[in-house]
Amino acid sequence: MAEDRRTRRSRRALGAALIELVLERGFTALTVEDITERADVARATFYAHFRDKEDLFARVTADLLAGLSERLAPAVADSAVGFTGKPVLEMLRHAREERDLYRIVLRGEGDGKPLQMFADACARATAEEFRARAERNAVEPRIDPELLARVWVGEQLGVLRWWVEQETPSLPAEEVVRMLLDLAMRGRYWASGFEPSA
Amino acid sequence: MAEDRRTRRSRRALGAALIELVLERGFTALTVEDITERADVARATFYAHFRDKEDLFARVTADLLAGLSERLAPAVADSAVGFTGKPVLEMLRHAREERDLYRIVLRGEGDGKPLQMFADACARATAEEFRARAERNAVEPRIDPELLARVWVGEQLGVLRWWVEQETPSLPAEEVVRMLLDLAMRGRYWASGFEPSA
DNA sequence: GCTGTTTACATACAGAGTGTTCAATAACTT
DNA sequence: AAGTTATTGAACACTCTGTATGTAAACAGC
Asked: Which nucleotide is nearest to B7 (CA to C1')?
């Protein structure tokens, strides 16, 4: 008794319909009936599975996050310190496969709650990592770890959003990671070949 | 016949009520009646001024943006090249004064449209600036200007969001700007006192 | 102050969407 | 094949929306 096939069919159809429609019209503009109609499912069936449309959206994004962390686990274990590298590359690949959903989430659809929660979680973890490094090396960091974490996360999300919004990516994932690493190590002014101005 | 005092009173009360309530319950959870009740205004009056709640929100944020660019104009003129400096400092000060609204916008409330539009506008302008610099110095940039722009904007917004969300800022605006400048010039690894890892 | 104009108000209304319930039917599992 | 479980369409009360009123109040200019 793994799971009834009808249940799976309905759930998947509704999830897929939601993604399609959010891309077309935006989350708030949608009605439950819009979704069930696209999914070719009765409205009553929707409520048999989900409380409301935000519930459906929450589950879809939760699944995405689960898929991401599953893929990230080995990469993170590899690169020990410093996230910019294998983990980021793996995330870009994941984003390429699930581009539609990434677009939706990164646009902040659905009140932006999933996005903000993800960003905050990343920032907290990153800040902790930075603090741990400072501790380990017995250095007083000149840059506040909290701020550094926000810089890092903001940078990643900004680039990721840009990358998934392009029709056909102007840069392959590997190039993006290379540039980000370069930037992190040498700074922005150096990277673009100029001296600071003001 | 500058403007009827009643009109101003109603508009302001509704705008203020919206800001309060969005912070308390989030934009989508609000009804027009919630807003008019808080503003102590009849519901019919709301519709005399605004089409719906997104219209009200759009005007409130448009005013904020207008205020920002007004304050930014002289600072941008000063620092000629390179935004990270006076303009950013001025923005932080503006954010401190209008913290509630900044929180709302940066959380992506109201479908995140104002935020995304602002971010995209910044990114386009920044990318153009980077390209112009490369042109001017006749250098082939090792980092894609488009990506660099997204990095920059993502970084600014990430830090800004963190900064306005704190109850009492852990760092004064001047410190934040100093660190951002430092980061931009020397890179992240150097800044935190460590060598790159992977 | 008076006067004509403009705004605010309370109320009512139709329409859309929500979330729930129910009995009949269809699809599934074992 | 039998028993279980999901889907369906219909009906329901409810909330919110956006519009349209006539009336009362507040306003600007003289």
From this structure: C7
